Amino acid sequence: MAGVFEITVTGGFCAAHRLPGHAGACARVHGHNFAVTARLSAPDTGEPDRSGMVMDFLDIKAILDSVLGELDHKDLNALPAFQNAPPTAELLARHIFGRIKTALAATTAAAPAPVRLARVTVRETKDFAAGYSED
Length: 135
Hints:
The protein is an alpha+beta fold. The chain has two helices and five strands; from the N terminus they run E-E-H-E-H-E-E.
């Protein structure tokens, strides 16, 4: 039975948001120091490429940092991605997943084994996080 390799990279950004219609304090403008984790996977084909890596950590970190740079020190409610939906942790995870997936497709087109973005997790605080993945 073939296995699967996984790698994880983490980054962060600071941003403000509010959740219109929320009954609690989150309805008011507030900020977070968000922590974001991206997990990638690739099948163990038994024949690793010469590097022996799923993907160079620095390459995926550069993609993650670029995506998070678009959100850093922003009012998330003002961004086009959140004009019709509130910038919840769940929807942030989905948005970041999509942006990384697009960049990853261009980067790994010639990779020997298919590298897949498995999951993105957005952590608002040490106690609260939301994740997004696709089947």
